[in-house]
Amino acid sequence: MTEREEFDVWFDSIYDRESVADSLIGLAFHFWCAGRQSVIAASGAAVEIRALAEPQ
To answer: What is the number of domains present in the chain?
Structure first.
């Protein structure tokens, strides 16, 4: 899953996409990515490790 796909799943679970302007969704994605990178940097980890979802 790409970062954008992960963001879309997260965003859709919280907000109604139809009621938010596309430009604001793009801005939210930018801040979401930056926030994730800052958490990774603050953790001191050299890389981000992602777990794969189990097949359904």
So the answer is: 1
